[in-house]
Amino acid sequence: MHNIAIISSSIRPDRKSHRLALYFMKYLNDNFLANANILDLKDYDFPIFSETLKIQKSPSKKLLDFAEKIKKSDAIIVVTPEYNGGYPASLKNAIDVLYEEWRHKPVGIVTVSGGPFAGTQVLVSFQFSLWKMKAWTITEQYCVPDVEKNYDEEGNSLHKKISEPLTEAFLKELFWCIKADKSVG
Ligand SMILES: Cc1cc2nc3c(=O)[nH]c(=O)nc-3n(C[C@H](O)[C@H](O)[C@H](O)COP(=O)(O)O)c2cc1C
Q1: What separation in Å is there between the alpha carbon of 180 and the centre of ligand 1?
Q2: What is the pLDDT of residues 113-140, one digit of tens each?
Q3: Ligand 1 site-directed mutation target among 20, 38, 113, 152, most atoms within 8 Å of CB
Q4: β-pair partners for 80
Q5: Helices H, strands E: what count in the chain?
């Protein structure tokens, strides 16, 4: 079974995009598609970036744990809200502190907004950052508008007829990339 890490990026007390992290974790685990775990940036509570892990003299246990989980995962799903047309500082913080760990890693991007535009303005800037890290962003996106109308607090989809085909297409591409990645070694 593949290991998939799901990064939940919003660290706001009243965050809503976390619902999508819960949704994908449950979908993958309940359907026995993968062993999926959430890497919650709210729990990690990393200090603002000052140096990469590689040259930190005494990295925290939390950072070493995060790095190990990124490295060991077969793929990553990043759930990000859109803040003023970009992705949140918490996510940039967690991306920049690593480097090698991201190399060739299949990454699926989930964008979330409270309004009608589904966080899609994040895609270009975030994908470019991942490209710079040599991660492998998959060519399907999962973009969620009106998050509170579409997912409940436990991460259940409120409109399965719409969400399931989109989820299947997104995960099909992610699993294809995992398979291709493993065949190269
Ligand atoms: C600082 C800030 C900036 C935001 N900027 C945008 C934006 O540019 N576009 C948008 O659609 N929603 C924006 N939102 C609303 C988010 O889409 C909304 O909070 C949503 O629930 C996802 O973020 P969350 O997981 O932090 O709740 C913004 C929210 C915050 C807190």
Answers
A1: 35
A2: 999 999 999 999 999 999 999 999 999 9
A3: 113
A4: 111
A5: 7, 5
